[in-house]
Amino acid sequence: MTLSADAPHLLVVDDDARLRALLQRFLTEQGFRITAAADAAAARHALASVSFDLMVLDVMMPGESGLELTESLRREGQDVPILMLTARGAPDDRVIGFEHGVDDYLAKPFDPRELALRIRTILRRAAPPPVADLSGGPVQLGLRWFDPQRAELRGPEGVVRLTGGEQSLLLALARRPNDVLSREEIAEALGTPEAGERAIDVQVTRLRRKIEPDPREPRFVQTVRHRGYVLRPGP
Question: At 125, is the pLDDT very low, low, confident or very high (cuts 50, 70, 90)?
Answer without folding.
Answer: confident
